[in-house]
Amino acid sequence: MTFPQQRMRRRRRSESMRALTRETRLHVSDLVLPIFVTAREADAGPVVSMPGVERYAVTNLGRLAERLNGSGIPAVMVFGIPERKDAEGSGAWREDGVVCRALQQLRVSMPELTLIADVCLCEYTSHGHCGLLAGELVDNDQTLGVLQKTSLAYAHAGADLVAPSGMMDGMVTAIRGALDEGGCADTGILSYAVKYASAFYGPFRDAADCAPTFGDRRTHQMDPANGREALREAEIDLQEGADMLMVKPALSYLDVLSGLRRKFEGVPMAAYQVSGEYSMIKAAAANGWIDERKIALETLLSIKRAGADMILTYFALDAARWLRQDR
C-alpha cells in the first residue's frame, strides 16, 4: 500500500502548530465600530432589528466612550439622525447638527480615536434619497455641492476621515477640492467606491430612519450582478483623490474585495459587514441554530482573508472582547 508523502495534516496536529502556520490573523486594530447618534434623546435606545445595537443621544455619548475605553478599537464611523428633515437635507451640514456635535464631543473625550464621518443625505432628507431630487430622480451634479458643504463641516468638527457613501459620480473630486480649499488638506477620504444596491441594508434603514419614501437606489448604487465594474469605480475614485476604498456589503462580495486587493495592492481597503449580515447571525444565534461567537469571528476572518485592512462591523465591541479572551 502506498502512503502519501505530503501530509498536510502535520501542520494541524495542535493549536500551537496551527498558530505557527496561520496565514491570516484578525486583530482588534482591524475593526471599526459604526455608531448611530440621534439629536433627540427620545429616539435613543436599542435598535429592535439589530440586537445589541443602540442609538446614542448626542447628549449622552459618555456611555459610548465608557464602552470603547480599553477595547482597543481604533476608529468609529458616525451616522446621524437629525431632529428635523427637509427636502434638501440641510441638517447634514449644520455646524450645530447632530454629527458635528457628536464629532466634537468624541474628539474631546477620546482624542486618540480615529473619527470617520459618513457623508450622505439619506438620513437628512424628508424623501430618504441620497441627494437632491429633480422630479423623482437624484440630481447627481446638484448633490455634489451639498456633499462638499457637509464634508467641510465634518472636517472642521474634528473628523479625521470623511466617507462619501452616496455613489454620486465625481463626489471624490468635489469633496477633495472643498477640503483643500477650506483649510482641511489633512482630512482624508474613505470612499464607498464599491457600494451595491443590496437587500442587506434593511435593518440599517430602520436604525438610521432613512428608507426612501418612494423608488429605490438602483440608479446610483451598483448592480449586484457586476464585478468587473467595481474595478472601474475604484480606479476612478483613486484618480479623483480617494485615500482609501470601501466595499459594501462585505460577505456577498468577497470576490469583489479580493479582486480589488489584487488590482490595488498598496491601497488601504475597507469592507463593511452591514446590518443585514449582522442581524442574520444574531437571529440564528438567538434561535440556538449557530454559535454566535464562532460564526461572527469566522465571518470577520473571511473578510480579512479576502483582502480588507479594516472591517466596519457592529460586532466590533464583542469581537474585541472575544479576541482578548483568546489571547
- Reading the helices and strands in chain order gives HEEEHEHEEEHEHEHHEHEHHEH
- Using DSSP, what is the number of strands? 12
Helix content: 25-40%
CATH superfamily heading: Aldolase class I
Strand order of the largest sheet: 1-4-5-8-9-10-11-12
Annotation field: number of helices: 11
- How many strands, which pairing sense, and closed or not: the largest β-sheet? 8 strands, parallel, barrel
Determine the structural class based on helices, strands and strand pairing: alpha/beta
Q: What's the structural domain tally?
A: 1
Q: For the CA atoms, what is the radius of gyration?
A: 20 Å
Task: Please tell me the overall pLDDT.
Answer: 95
CATH topology call: TIM Barrel
What is the CATH class? Alpha Beta
Shape: globular
CATH architecture: Alpha-Beta Barrel
- Residue fraction in strands: 15-25%
- Indicate the low-confidence ranges by residue numbers: none
How does the SSE layout of this entry go?
Layout lengths: L14 H6 L10 E8 L6 E2 L7 E4 L4 H7 L6 E7 L16 H12 L4 E6 L13 E2 L2 E2 L1 H18 L3 E4 L6 H11 L6 E8 L6 H6 L20 H13 L3 E5 L5 H10 L5 E5 L1 H12 L5 H15 L3 E4 L2 H11 L1
Parallel strand pairs: 1-3, 1-4, 1-12, 4-5, 5-8, 8-9, 9-10, 10-11, 11-12
Antiparallel strand pairs: 2-3, 6-7
Helix pairs in contact: 3-4, 4-5, 7-8, 8-10
